Amino acid sequence: MEQREIVVIGGGPAGLSAALQAAHSGARVTIIEGEKRLGGQLIKQTHMFFGSHKQHAGTRGIDIATLLENELRALPNVEIILGATVLGYYYEDGALTIEDHEAFRLMIPKRLIVASGASEKFLAFPNNDLPGVYGAGAVQTLMNVYGVKPAQRVLMIGAGNIGLIVSYQLLQAGVEVAAVLEAAPQISGYLVHASKILRLGVPILTRHSIKEALGKHTVEGAIIHRLDDRWQPVPHSEQQITCDTICLAVGLSPLCDLLWQAGCAMQYIAELGGYVALRDEGMQTSVPGIYVAGDAAGVEEASAAMVEGSLAGLSAALSLGYNSPADEELTAELRQQLDDLRAGPGGAKIRSGLEKLHPTADNPKEVT
Amino acid sequence: MRLSNHPILTFRRGEKISFFFNGQPLEAYLGETIAASLHAAGIYHLSDSAEKHRARGFFCAIGQCSSCMMLVNGRPNVKTCTTLVKPGMVVESQQGKGQLPLWNNGK
Ligand SMILES: Cc1cc2nc3c(=O)[nH]c(=O)nc-3n(C[C@H](O)[C@H](O)[C@H](O)COP(=O)(O)OP(=O)(O)OC[C@H]3O[C@@H](n4cnc5c(N)ncnc54)[C@H](O)[C@@H]3O)c2cc1C
Ligand code: FES
């Protein structure tokens, strides 16, 4: 059994920031990432980020990943394990089971930070299992990581930021976008992203959804229809769209299997994408020694993921006795950054979600 | 099809290699996943579902959904969206649930 001080699961912006902060505090940190490179969702994001300068706004997502990675690699007290998936957490003895290049590893960390991100939601409609029905993230991976043209003509479902951004990236890669469908009466993504694709002639159809996918062995088209105020299909409003790919961008839900396994108290909050772990201000869950950060704690943005990561890294290190006189000020500053990021109309959904979250003390489901 | 002119990205591809899909030789570049190489070659229908025999392609491309599983060098249920392509690799569409090689050759 391998012993470790702090283990961070996930090498996205949240995990990278958690590892960086904990290592800066003086703790010995191990970061485990299932992919062969660090960066999480950031490695497919070719657009400039919003937010404040503290979270690298104005820099492309992919470059933020490199910045964080270089900083982390320069630290002597950080161990990076790539291409290894954490399979389980055993609360009886606090052991992690890990598949590392077809070998099995057991590791007991003193503190665990779960920054596993989120997974894409699926949508129910006939033929949704045909090859050619792809998650928006999958299409992005294919074109931005591997440089493979993902499709000739795409129907995008969902006009949140991901649907809008991926549509724009598809156009940049020379792919036609037939339309973007949105079931709600208005788009939920930022207007700037919507304008970019509208200017390029892509229709965004609000109050529309997909009725079924067409095709035998792969997608050949789709039937779409209009929805009324009660989200019911409007009779005879069907239209046929020709496309070879249907891209789903209908939201993400936190990947929190490991938190469930650890016995963390969980709560369903639609605004945060699904079940999330209760946590205190330092991102510690109801199970002492287990922390959560980023999309795994509630689907939000990379900017908030980085700040939550830093907070989790700081509190995990502090709890191990790695403290410095500046910690209090840093904690206050990080909390302020989170409040700033969530201020304004863009943060309303997250704020209302977080307000519903019970304090951890309400739910003392402790495992020792 | 692979992208060559992209307004933002430059792609550094590895060495050109070849591998087999259902017996047919295909080109790929080192560093690509099997699913990416197949997609670039216009192959989207990867396997068939075990019960209803419906066409299966990839869905998430990051190893989370198991939609992309194929037989690779005789081994079933390999997630081709996260497994890197190798020279001479034998990739086949999987029918049915697949079976692990028997321990001790079944003796
Ligand atoms: C198209 C798109 C555009 C976006 N645009 C913006 C934007 O402009 N600004 C912004 O702030 N945000 C943006 N975001 C959101 C942002 O990318 C995410 O909120 C952010 O990446 C979340 O960070 P994370 O570290 O929590 O998770 P992720 O980045 O998802 O990283 C999680 C990592 O954990 C790894 N992992 C998971 N489980 C395990 C396991 N069991 N074992 C080992 N490793 C594991 C995964 O492989 C992954 O690398 C965008 C997202 C998308 C998809
Ligand atoms: S496509 Fe989801 S696991 Fe490969």
What do you see in this structure?
The complex is a heterodimer of chains A (368) and B (107). With 368 residues, chain A is of the alpha/beta class. Chain A has helices at 13-25, 61-73, 136-145, 161-172, 191-199, 257-261, 302-319, 327-342, 348-356, and strands spanning 2-9, 29-33, 78-82, 84-90, 95-100, 103-114, 118-120, 133-135, 153-157, 176-182, 204-206, 208-214, 221-226, 239-242, 245-248, 252-254, 266-269, 274-277, 290-292. In chain A, helix 1 runs parallel beside helix 2 and helix 7 runs antiparallel to helix 8. The longest helix of chain A is centred in the last third of the chain and has 18 residues, at 302-319. With 107 residues, chain B is mainly beta. Chain B has one domain (16-93): Roll (Ubiquitin-like (UB roll)). In chain B, 7% of the residues lie in helices and 26% in strands. Chain B has a 5-stranded mixed sheet, with helices on one face. The mean pLDDT of chain B is 91. The structure holds flavin-adenine dinucleotide and FE2/S2 (inorganic) cluster. FE2/S2 (inorganic) cluster (FES) binds next to loops of chain B. The site of flavin-adenine dinucleotide (FAD) has 39 residues of chain A, from helix 1, strand 2, strand 4, helix 3 and helix 4.
Q: Can you give keywords for this protein?
A:
heterodimer, A: 368 residues, alpha/beta, FAD/NAD(P)-binding domain, five-stranded parallel β-sheet, 19 strands, globular, B: 107 residues, mainly beta, Ubiquitin-like (UB roll), five-stranded mixed β-sheet, two-stranded antiparallel ribbon, 26% strand, binds flavin-adenine dinucleotide, binds FE2/S2 (inorganic) cluster
Brief sketch in words of this structure:
By secondary structure, chain A is of the alpha/beta class.
Small-molecule binders: flavin-adenine dinucleotide, FE2/S2 (inorganic) cluster
| SSE class of chain B | mainly beta
Q: Considering the protein shown, what is the CATH homologous superfamily of chain B?
A: 2Fe-2S iron-sulphur cluster binding domain, sarcosine oxidase, alpha subunit, N-terminal domain
Q: How far apart are the termini of chain B?
A: 47 Å
How many structural units, i.e. domains of chain A? 2
- CATH domain class of the largest domain in chain A: Alpha Beta
Biggest sheet: strand arrangement of chain B: 2-1-7-5-6
Ends distance of chain A: 19 Å
What value does the average pLDDT of chain B take? 91
Strand content of chain A: 25-35%
CATH topology of chain B: Ubiquitin-like (UB roll)
Main sheet properties of chain B: 5 strands, mixed
Instruction: Give the total of beta strands of chain B.
Output: 7
- Helix count of chain A? 9
Question: What is the general shape of chain A?
Answer: globular
Helical content band of chain B: under 10%
List SSEs of chain A in N-to-C order: EHEHEEEEEEHEHEHEEEEEEHEEEHHH
Number of helices of chain B: 1
Query: Would you identify the CATH architecture of chain B?
Result: Roll
Instruction: Provide the gyration radius of chain A in Å.
Output: 21 Å
